[in-house]
Design brief:
The structure holds two protein chains of two kinds. By secondary structure, chain A is mainly alpha-helical. Chain A has one domain. Chain A is built from ten helices and two strands; from the N terminus they run ααββαααααααα. Chain A has a two-stranded antiparallel ribbon. In chain A, a hairpin with a 2-residue loop joins strand 1 and strand 2. The model of chain A has no long low-confidence stretch (mean pLDDT about 90). Chain B folds into two domains: about 220 residues, P-loop containing nucleotide triphosphate hydrolases (Rossmann fold, 3-Layer(aba) Sandwich), CATH 3.40.50; about 55 residues, no CATH class. In chain B, about 30% of the residues lie in helices and about 25% in strands. In chain B, strands 5-6-7-3-8-9 form a six-stranded mixed beta sheet, with helices on both faces. The two termini of chain B are about 30 Å apart. In chain B, about 40% of the residues are buried. Classes of the chains: A mainly alpha, B alpha/beta. Chains A and B meet through helix 1 and helix 4 of A and helix 4 of B.
Chain lengths: ~260, ~325
């Protein structure tokens, strides 16, 4: 079997495993929608200003939660699952077989991307039905898909890199959340930036990839300006993550 | 043994590019590996023939796992010469991985796949896999074929580990402490599975710290202690234990006095033991005496130093190696 065929075959097994863990699959899908409903109910309907455009807060959250869903499915899931597999010895066992490392990890990335697409479709459909959100079409859709693929791949790579600083599986969820949750807040995912947002927050948002990814996603849903620089920044983070993962990734369980 | 026919058609073109003539499965000379300056493996020589079960015995921390992981390609060595199935594990890991199967100490598989799916998945990594159902049959998991892996018992999971290692139809199988933590019946089952592997024409390298396991399974054993091989050979004759003096032991009935020369000091529990020069003659005299006096010799046994006795004396303090001089 070629490496491509092996990767495709791995994707099928990853997919089988994913759906057979109903709790995990359910929350991957339920969280973004749950947050969408909570935020729009909690904060009421108001107007969010993005550049010169004014958008309804519900529409804003549809785009935000689509970004959030992709980041969770890629960054969180990859980092946590890979750490569990590392500490359970799955990675070491796999490393002792002829399966190329790239096929094993690549299959997980491809599957996360696949789940991301489903999540975005569900979030968009939900937003369309309940909040009359706009659905990207034509050129906007194409740009949006580029952002989605680049973003999903980048967050997967960063997830793999993060496993290097996770000492054991028990700590994985805590460490991943400690990294990603503040960043989500500081990137306006949960609460939109306003005129009074302090400068230091804007700078953090500018440096890290979350806000750039969210802006690219918003352009698809809200019709705001699409900047290729957002794609480039996210891609650069992804490449950095890949380089770190290739240097520090461990196939052996770490037990202290 | 009629072991060869099974293997002839199995695509096993011997990779004897390194000139081992295809006779030895593992060839190691002067292997050295140090962790932060301390030599965990300190000059090991090892030869494992094809189609034999070879056991590497040694206490925890003696260098067993380090040695095996170097052979498997998991670890780089610091020095020495290593050939596994004709390949250097450090330089030619890809072709080597297609021909070996590894059972690690700690299990780890996708919990939500079934037994059959798991074996099929791993079989798919190899150029010439064994049929999935055949592999499942070999380890006796037919009834669990469609069970999820997370529903298996510990012993069943271990058998699945062996099944996964067999899925690619390897020539050489590494089993690192395959029965540690098993209850006695699960160990017996695992042993039968491993014994069967020899009839499939497989070479097996087994590490263990159970003497009975080595004695039951292995054609040859090597004892490793503090990073060195301290004895190597047939488990029955390791360190000349077959030549060591046999001991006769029995319980002396109350009031009876055994003949001179056929007893040692009598212990509180009534047992006595002695080492005769000629076991056959001594036994004949002793049982003759017992029959003449209508005495029953309770608990009569003749024993030689067990593999465990030899092992303990070999792996004790490095100074205490009085009877280890085979190699």
């Amino acid at each position: 079997m070629s490496a491509v065929a092996m990767t495709a075959s791995q994707v099928r097994y990853v997919n089988k495993s994913f759906w057979r863990n109903p709790a995990s699959a359910f929350f991957t899908f339920a969280f973004p929608l749950l947050f969408l409903v909570i935020f729009t109910s909690l904060l009421g309907h108001y107007t969010v200003h993005i550049g010169t455009r004014s958008v309804n807060s519900a529409t804003y959250y549809v785009a935000s939660m689509a970004s959030f869903a992709v980041i969770t499915a890629c960054y969180n899931n990859i980092a946590i699952q890979t750490t569990f597999q590392r500490d359970a010895g799955v990675l070491k066992r796999t490393h002792g077989t002829p399966l190329p490392s790239g096929s094993f990890l690549g299959a997980r990335v491809v599957h996360a991307l696949f789940i991301s697409v489903i999540l975005v479709v569900i979030t968009a459909a939900f937003g369309r039905v309940f909040y009359s959100a706009d659905i990207p079409t034509g050129l906007t859709l194409l740009r949006f898909l580029v952002m989605l693929v680049v973003g999903a791949a980048a967050f997967c790579a960063l997830g793999l890199a993060t496993t290097a600083v996770i000492p054991n599986a028990d700590a994985s969820a805590a460490i991943v959340n400690a990294i990603i949750l503040p960043l989500l807040f500081l990137s306006g995912i949960f609460i939109p930036f306003g005129n009074n947002t302090p400068n230091w927050i804007l700078w953090i948002a500018r440096i890290f990839p979350v806000k750039h990814f969210a802006d690219g996603t918003q352009a698809g849903f809200l019709g705001t300006a699409f900047h290729w620089t957002d794609v480039l920044v996210v891609a650069a983070w992804g490449l950095a993550g890949l380089a770190l993962a290739m240097r520090f990734f461990s196939w052996e369980p770490r037990r202290s | 043994m009629t072991t060869l026919p099974d293997e002839t058609g199995a695509g096993g073109a011997p990779a004897s590019s390194s000139g081992d003539g295809g006779l030895s499965a593992v060839h190691v000379r002067g292997l050295v590996k140090a962790y932060s300056g301390v030599r965990a493996v300190n000059g090991i020589d090892l030869d494992i023939r094809r189609v034999e079960i070879f056991a590497l015995l040694g206490p925890n921390g003696a260098g067993k796992t380090t040695t095996v992981e170097i052979l498997e390609g998991y670890r780089a060595r610091d020095g020495g010469e290593v050939t596994v199935l004709g390949y250097d594990p450090a330089r030619q890991p890809a072709p080597l991985k297609r021909k070996i199967g590894i059972v690690l100490q700690s299990t780890g598989v996708e919990p939500y796949l079934t037994v059959a799916e798991t074996v099929r998945m791993y079989a798919g990594f190899y150029p010439d896999p064994r049929p999935v159902d055949e592999v499942i049959g070999l380890v006796g998991l037919e009834e669990k074929r469609n069970s999820r892996v997370n529903k298996l018992s510990g012993g069943q999971q271990r058998r699945l580990d062996v099944a996964i290692a067999l899925a690619g139809n390897p020539e050489l199988l590494f089993l690192d402490e395959p029965t540690t933590g098993f209850d006695p019946s699960a160990r017996r089952e695992a042993w039968e599975v491993i014994k069967n592997l020899a009839t499939l024409g497989k070479t097996v390298l087994l590490t263990t710290h159970y003497m009975d396991e080595a004695q039951y399974l292995a054609d040859r054993v090597a004892v490793i202690s503090a990073g060195r091989i301290v004895a190597q050979g047939d488990p029955a004759t390791l360190a000349n234990r077959e030549l060591a003096g046999a001991r006769i032991r029995y319980r002396v009935p109350d009031g009876a006095t055994p003949p001179a020369g056929l007893a040692g000091p009598i212990a509180a529990d009534g047992f006595t033991e002695f080492s005769p020069d000629d076991v056959t003659a001594a036994l004949h005299q002793l049982t003759g005496w017992a029959l003449d006096h209508q005495i029953s010799l309770d608990g009569l046994e003749v024993s030689r130093p067990s593999l465990e006795d030899v092992y303990l004396s070999l792996t004790a303090a490095p100074a205490g190696r009085e009877n280890g001089g085979t190699a």
